[in-house]
Amino acid sequence: MPNTLTDWLTYLESLHPKTIALGLERVVQVKQRLNLNPDFPIITVGGTNGKGSVCAMLESILHAAGYRVGCYTSPHLLHYNERVRIAKRQASDAELCTSFEKIEQARGDIPLTYFEFGTLAAMQCFIGHKVDVAILEVGLGGRLDAVNVFDNDCAVVTSVDIDHTDYLGETREQIAFEKAGIFRNGKVAICADADVPQAIRNHAQQIGAKLWCIGSEFGFTENFLPSPAGGRGIEGEGSGNGARTISIAQPLTRPAGHHLPPTGEGKAQWSYRSLVGSRNVLPYPALRGAFQLNNASAALAALDALKDKLPVSMEAVRRGLVEVQLAGRFQFVPGRPTLILDVAHNPHAARSLAQNLAGLPPCPHTLAVFAMLKDKDMVGVAAALDPLIDTWLVAGIAAPRGATAGALAQVLQNTGVRGDIQTFSNVGEALRYAYNAAGENDRIAAFGSFYTVAEAMAAKGLKF
Predict the structure, then answer these.
(1) Element (H or E) spanning 245, and its range?
(2) CA 46, CA 343: separation in Å to the nearest integer?
(3) Confidence class of residue 418 from pLDDT cuts 50, 70 and 90?
(4) 84-86 and 69-72 beta bridge pairing
(5) Which of 311, 63, 75, 46 is closest to 193 using CA atoms?
(6) To the nearest 10°, the Cα dihedral for 370, 375, 380, 385?
(7) Are residues 206 and 225 in the same domain?
(8) If we measure between CA atoms, which residue out of 328, 361, 337, 389 comes closest to residue 262?
(9) Cα–Cα dist 393/420, whole Å
(10) Is residue 76 domain-shared with residue 164, that is, in the same domain?
């Protein structure tokens, strides 16, 4: 058998003829052979975008509340160990290798994909560490995803949009049905997408899940405080006394020029409410972006659903929101020029990134370090960000599914983007050029894929 984690991961990649093979039968058989029967609460998180953010917030808040939290997410950026965390610490190479070896011995001739192997290994680690709660991020879809072999006590669908059409269907309703497959009878199912697909409602009703939707069963308001001098506030209006409250029943949309509230500076708060109760005067999550309050509200709704099993104090909620960390989600790298890392890899995420960029203070020039996988909607992503980008620095990705720089540049030309286009062999080379070309007041945005962000982080010597 393989001896090192690197050897194991290479071996796992060769086990199944397909990288993605949806279906639960094979995983269920191996799960039963391993006797993986968790006795702790499980929160399963799915959705087109926002899954990682919700998982990170839940992990941070529950950890702050004193619980031993197991968190399984994917994909990783720099090291596989990022996928499996216990008490906010990454699983060690030795621990993962031991889990992989047990699975290999138990599976016999049952083929498992890389992700299926990893899912079973993560649960082995969580059971071995006797965690108090596990958070499982869906890899793809939901209904037939490997994490769905474990029954959850609460399910979250963060958003529903078009992505992975080869596997999930070509319409939003078809995709919604697949994501709703993580719902369970008698358990709370949370939808943080303001435009709730009918398939979500139908499936919840059909199986007897308790559906909570943002803007209905739970929601949030933002409270903008006046500036100390009594002048223009954060939203650029108001001069008076007291807070300005905006009721939200859909993702927050700010016009260009309206700046995002600063994080961690006490200049703005928000409040959450649900069927269970309310939590007021909350700090903004440390994760930046206009949609993070939707994600934070979904996380708090999940905690409401499990309040009898996992009570959480206001102090833990506030601390968890302030301390949450997640690389590659509208992440600002310190220094001049500003570097922003975002894993946006589909049109829905690209529109969110565009909105977030538009909400920042103006800058002279924005350069994009751009690389994508060839099976993604490159046209949709480029079109969403075109108005915000002055120069496109296009790079190839050294992965089987990676688009070449030439192919991606051709997509940009065909799309008719307004900015200049230059090509580079890899992301590191494009990023170095960007730093040399940009002025200190300019902005660099690296986006398009987890691979893009990972290569940018490696080039900058950043750690997860």
Answers:
(1) strand 244-248
(2) 17
(3) very high
(4) antiparallel
(5) 46
(6) -10
(7) no
(8) 361
(9) 8
(10) yes
- How many domains is the chain partitioned into structurally? 3
Tokens 């103006």 -> residue: 362
Same domain, yes or no: 103 and 227: no
Cα dist from 398 to 37, 42, 257, 314, 367, whole Å: 39, 36, 37, 45, 22
Q: Domain boundary residue among 193, 211, 229?
A: 211
d(CA 353, CA 170): 23
Query: Which pLDDT value is given to residue 238?
Result: 29
**Taking the model in full, what pTM does it have?**
0.88
From 146, 179, 211, the end of a domain falls on 211
- Phi then psi for 380, rounded to 5 degrees? -60, -40
pLDDT, tens only, 163-212:
666 767 779 899 999 999 999 999 999 999 999 999 999 999 999 999 99
Q: Which residue has the tokens 């080039």?
A: 459
CB 261 within 8 A of CB 268: yes
Tokens matching residue 358: 């538009």
Let me know whether 63 and 178 are in one domain: yes
Look at residues 349, 330, 305 and name the one whose alpha carbon lies nearest to residue 50. 349
Confidence bin at 401 (pLDDT 50/70/90): confident
